[in-house]
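Problem: given the chain below (211 residues), write out its structure.
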Amino acid sequence: MKLIDLTHTFERTMPVFPGMDAPVVERVFNIKEHHCNVTKLDILTHMGTHLDCSSHVIEDGFFTSNKDINFFFGEGKVIDCSHLGKGDEIGVDVLDGVDTENADFIFLYTGWDKNWNTNTYSEGFPVVSRELAEKLGSMNIKGVGLDVVSLDKIEEAELSNHQVFLSKGKIIVENLTNLNELVNREFKFIGLPLKIQEGDGSPIRAAALVE
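Solution.
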């Protein structure tokens, strides 16, 4: 058994959702002066590789602190959407012929993670269609994951895909990487959030456990 890391490095210069402040990652103690290193983090719950709880957009949704930890672990299935180009829509047809019966988490691999730490990462990424969001929301899964910045278009202020999917008590995992290593493979997904009081989301260390 081994783990495949699905997580981007959390750093000062990483891309953030348009309108968010950049994270603060600052060394406040150092070994030379203080005999130890201590780093200050000033971050938002939806930065880097992270998950969205239902409370992100649903008033009475669950938080990272009150959801059973087992919910963030389970069988994963990657669907290859890498044939899609800039600005293309990920339609419900990507599910055609795909066996998702035993999946707890469905991941949409677009290959867009290659644009991480570039100015184009948040521009023109393939976006899930409303029909696909509704279909995924109706499935017996815990969550969906993507290697792009959002389940919605950047300009979609109402976050309609988020609303449709998260209203079903599921999670969304965004800004993943290395999903290409999991195409046509069986694996278990691990994406444990910080246990934050009223945490509507959290950065995670996402990984796949494979044989």
